[in-house]
Amino acid sequence: MKKYAFNDITLMQYIFLIAGIQMGVGLLQLPRELAELAGTDGWIAIVICFFIATCSSLTIVQVMKRYPDGTLFDLLKRYAGKWVGRAAAVLTAMYFAFFSYTIMVRAVLFIKSWILPKTPDFVMLILLAIPSYLLARGGVRVLGRYAEIVLYITLWMPFFYLLSLRESNWLYMLPVFKEGLHPILLAMKPALYAFLGFEASFLLYPFLKSKQYASRGIVIANVLTLLVYLHVTVTCNVFYSPDAITHFNEPSVNLLKTMEFRFIERLEIVFLSFFIMIISTTWLPGLYLSVFSINWIFGREDHRKLLQWVMLLFVGSVIFVMPTFNKTDKWIEVVNLTEMFFGYLFPYILWLYVWLHDRLRWRRGGT
């Protein structure tokens, strides 16, 4: 009997979960970060990093095929021993907990700066924590359905960005490679960060019903992320001048302030509400996976009680930490550096270890 069959997810849910984790805060700030380093050539860095992320994603899938009915921890327990699996579970829980906390706090700061500037941080975090708990306690299947619903109700958003193209100047994009290859290589750093999230497949893989399509699914998730990032980045680049785009922290939101309709004036407020839903598909899986990792150590399947304590810890810490954009920038840097190892380096190390382990065992069996 499959260990995780009771909470399995479809291929579509698997795709949208991974794409949702990838499209977090980067959706708002990536155009500015790329413009600061590579100007209007930042889109090239996105394309290059897409291929790098896809290679790492496929490596994860190939590794997990060695133990298809278990998570990363089960795989490590089988190949390296019980304590290695437990140590990996503790580190993964810490990573996903800090990741989720950082994204939630960042979302609170966005809401404060754009909509509710005088509302205390802990009050807004409580308002986010309650629905987050109700969703995360349902497990991977509920989170997969939520990610699917969020995609369907936000499909209209990219079309509104097309309206800004009436006042755009495509000459801003020329010439390509304005300052050579070096700025593009520098811009690959934030672009690589923006694609991170596929490493969640280490834990989501055993929940997937149709595992034979896992490679296809993770590639489609990366393609969706690529198309969204390219759409937003190119739209911002042709709307703003190369110098003007760097003056806005969230150019993808500021762009909406220029649009007005008879029935609505501040379109960016409406969009930000939907942006928060998109960002929630980033912190919710991370929140669940952190609790799942701890419970894996103790062999528990009920995540609700531990999830309650984690949410209380998140809310309580905000009162003492008093987060700001500068503080969360440093937190995001720590998260990104950890993700770089977990997402881009660790899959190849693990694949090599598993391959050598199986090959040596086969040789010993042959002799």
Description:
The chain crosses the membrane at residues 12-30, 42-63, 83-103, 115-134, 146-164, 184-205, 217-240, 269-294, 306-325, 337-356. The chain is mostly helical and 367 residues long. The protein has helices spanning 11-22, 26-38, 42-64, 72-80, 82-114, 121-136, 140-153, 157-162, 182-195, 201-204, 214-239, 251-254, 267-298, 304-321, 325-366. It has one domain (5-326): Amino acid/polyamine transporter I (Up-down Bundle), CATH 1.20.1740. Helix 5 (82-114) crosses helix 6. The protein starts with 10 loop residues before the first helix and ends with a helix.
Task: Looking at this protein, list some descriptive labels.
globular, germination, mainly alpha, transmembrane, transmembrane helix, Amino acid/polyamine transporter I, 367 residues, membrane
Coarse morphology? globular
Percent in helix: over 70%
Q: What fraction strand?
A: under 5%
Mean pLDDT rating = 88
User: Per CATH, what is the topology?
Assistant: Amino acid/polyamine transporter I
Give the CATH level 1 class: Mainly Alpha
How far apart the termini lie comes to 33 Å
Radius of gyration: 21 Å
Question: Structural class given helices, strands, pairing?
Answer: mainly alpha
| DSSP E strands, number | 0
Largest sheet: none
Main location: membrane
Family: Belongs to the amino acid-polyamine-organocation (APC) superfamily. Spore germination protein (SGP) (TC 2.A.3.9) family.
Pfam families: Spore_permease
Keywords: Germination, Membrane, Transmembrane, Transmembrane helix, Transport
